[in-house]
Each structure stands twice: as structure tokens, then as C-alpha cells.
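Case 225 in the screening queue. Each case pairs one protein sequence with one candidate compound; here the compound is magnesium ion. For every case the pipeline is the same: read the inputs, emit a complex structure as C-alpha cells, and attach any notable structural observations.

Predict complex for case 225.
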Amino acid sequence: MANSIITITNMKKQYPEGKGKFTALDDINLSINSGEFTGIVGPSGSGKTTLLNIIGSLDVPTEGEVITLGESIGKLTHRKAAKLRNKNIGFIFQTYNLLPVYSVYENVEFPLLLLKMSASKRKKAVLDALEWLGLTDKIKSRPGQLSGGECQRVAVARAMVKLPEIVLADEPTANLDAENAHNILKMMSKLNKELNTTFLFSTHDEKVIQYLTRQILLKDGKVVG
Ligand SMILES: Nc1ncnc2c1ncn2[C@@H]1O[C@H](COP(=O)(O)OP(=O)(O)O)[C@@H](O)[C@H]1O
Ligand SMILES: [Mg+2]
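Case 225 output:
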């Protein structure tokens, strides 16, 4: 497909369980186009995190094929997988995963240190990302001095700073109150429209679902709608 940046064909993921295997994802077929704002929606244990992790090359499929930005995930060397993630994929987690001893500025700058980028370009990118997320006045704060909503905005700025093609957000509102959840969804929706960044969420939060332009329903490791 012309525009498809994630293509999954007959994909299965199994984990060892006792002497047998546990099937976490079964016969997944999916295509996601550039610029979509999609959610993988399903209850706890349905396989959402496993699916996002494989798409993001943090894990590999057991069978079938997952192509992310033209790369076949099961076939990448560790080095190539790291390069794909560092350049083109931003991750947002439920628990923010910020580095506590670093400032907001340093947390957002961190992914750029893995890329070859001049100091002046890096500074501009960090300041832009912090401005998009309304964090300009928190530059020197450390995560411990921020609210949950602010921490998650820092995590979104960190995901966006390198202008990735894809942002994978695993239950990003799970620890946020309603106001902060709406706030952050509005910001991500705006970035999706303005920068054409593809967003893929995992969620079962109604507040997230109302912003999605497409839902992929997952149940017991299978796509059911
Ligand atoms: N590393 C692993 N080893 C064994 N089982 C796993 C592993 N990761 C996930 N699972 C199992 O796979 C299923 C799907 O998990 P997960 O993808 O985390 O679901 P969700 O994110 O929808 O809650 C669960 O039953 C979980 O226990
Ligand atoms: Mg999960």
C-alpha cells in the first residue's frame, strides 16, 4: 500500500509458559497509514503492549511479518533495530519513564544525544518541543518537582523532539486525571495534524477513544474489529 508505514501479516507472538507456549497475539493482520491517529483498544491482558513493542522493534514476532517504516522487525540486527527506534520512533509510557536526576530540558534532550546533531540544532529542537507542550517555564525543574500531567507532557516532548515518523503511546493517560488526560490528548492531536506524525495508542480509556480517528479492537490476542 502506497502510504502504509506499518504492515502486519499473519503475525503470531508466543511466550514460553511452563513446558508449553502461551499465545499472546494470534493471526494479526493490520495496516496503518502515515498520519493516522489510531488506538489499539482492548482490556488488560489482550496483548496491546506486546503489539506496540513489536511494532516499535522492542520485541520480535514469533511467526508472520511486521514491517515498520520499511524494515522487517524480526530480521533486524540489534544495531539496526536501535537505529530505527532512535531515529524514527518516539515512545510514551504509562509511567512516564523520565530520568529523575535530570532536568526537564535534559530529559527532552536525551534522545537527540543518540543522533548526530549539532549543539545549536539540538537546543532549538528541545526548546521547540518544550514550547509545543507548554513547558517553557519548567525547563530547569526535575521530574520530582512536577505533577503527573506535567511529567507526561515532558514524556511527549521527549518523544516528539526528534520529529519521529511514528509515536507509540502505551496507555498514556492511565495515571492522569480527566483534565490532564484531555489536555495531553488535545496536544497530541494538534501535533498529529500539524506535523503529520503518526500516533498509535494502546488504551481502554474512553477519554482517549473519543480523540481517535480509528480504533483497532483487540481481545485475547486477536483483532476483533
Ligand atoms: N514477557 C512475557 N512473558 C510471558 N508472558 C507475557 C509477556 N509479556 C506479556 N505476556 C502475556 O501476554 C498477554 C498480553 O500482555 P500485554 O501485551 O501486556 O497485554 P495488555 O497490554 O493488553 O494488558 C498477557 O497474558 C501477559 O501475561
Ligand atoms: Mg499493556
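Case 225 observations:
- The mean pLDDT is 96.
- The pocket of magnesium ion (ligand 2) is lined by residues 48-49, 170-171, 202 (CB under 6 Å).
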